[in-house]
Amino acid sequence: MQDILLEDKTGLVAGWQQVWDPFIGYISNPEVWTALLIGAIKIVFIYFAGRLVMKLANKALEHMLVARDKNPLKLDTRRTHTIGRLLGNITSYVVNFIVILMILNQFGIRLEPILAGAGVVGLAIGFGAQSLVKDVITGFFIIFEDQFAVGDIVQIGTFKGTVEEIGLRVTKLKSWTGEVHFIPNGTINQVTNFSLNNSIAVVDISIAYASDVDKALEVLRTTVLKNYETNVNMVKEPQVLGVQTISTSEITLRTTVECKPNTQASVSRELYGEIKKALDALSIENKESQAN
């Protein structure tokens, strides 16, 4: 019995010795510690290099957005922050993904299966959510290219109104009668922006054929110039162009004025009212008074 126990003990010691001796030899090998030290240095270098790249990229984005704000067509503050956050997040994801792959490579992990798996997952997501991906990509370019901003009056397809919100997936548009339209960005093919440039108000006044044209033109010039001094929406002095059309019963006189974006309707209404009063005061018969 003692012999059996002694043999078991001897076998156990021998087995432990077989495991322990290679381990001691491994950890006492200078080449192993040198390789581990070099690997640790590489990992630290990769990490801080990634942080540096992200910092430089964020600085470049800030300078780009500041330079864009100095352009004649400026971004509003909300859009500038949106672009900054969006590009910053994309840069962060890309840099962190590359850093993780490089660190895994230092541990001897093959990257080919990981990249292949990521490609398959991305392809599956792309096929499963094509409309969502299209909406997000289109929304990104709408924001980045400054096609329209919150507060602009635009026409998208058959919908016209004020832009209330621009998201990566949908754009919220409010019509002048109060309806709110949610338009997926992927369906936006053409946009007409009425708020980028100054508008032109066209005021056509019809007077009776027998009226004194020169007198009527002088009344128009005096009235519109007087209104120009008080109307803050007019950006340039009105131009009385003269006779626009002649018919058997009336003569149409045209006046144009450059005004602030999307204010042409209110400017036209105000000019029509003031011109009507001026013509009535001088007993110049216009179309409306003639019809009465």
Automatic annotation (TrEMBL):
A Pfam family hit: MS_channel_1st
Q: Which family does it belong to?
A: Belongs to the MscS (TC 1.A.23) family.
Q: Name one GO molecular function term.
A: mechanosensitive monoatomic ion channel activity
Give the main localization category. membrane
Domain spans labelled Mechanosensitive ion channel MscS: 132-195
What residues form the membrane-spanning segments?
32-54, 86-108, 114-133
Q: Which GO terms describe its cellular component?
A: plasma membrane
Keywords, ordered alphabetically: Cell membrane, Membrane, Transmembrane, Transmembrane helix
- Boundaries of each Mechanosensitive ion channel transmembrane helices 2/3 domain copy? 89-130
Q: Where in the cell is the protein located?
A: Cell membrane
Entry function: May play a role in resistance to osmotic downshock.
Q: By what name is this protein known?
A: Mechanosensitive ion channel
Bilayer topology: Multi-pass membrane protein
Q: Which PANTHER family match?
A: MODERATE CONDUCTANCE MECHANOSENSITIVE CHANNEL YBIO
Which parts of the sequence belong to the Mechanosensitive ion channel MscS C-terminal domain? 202-281
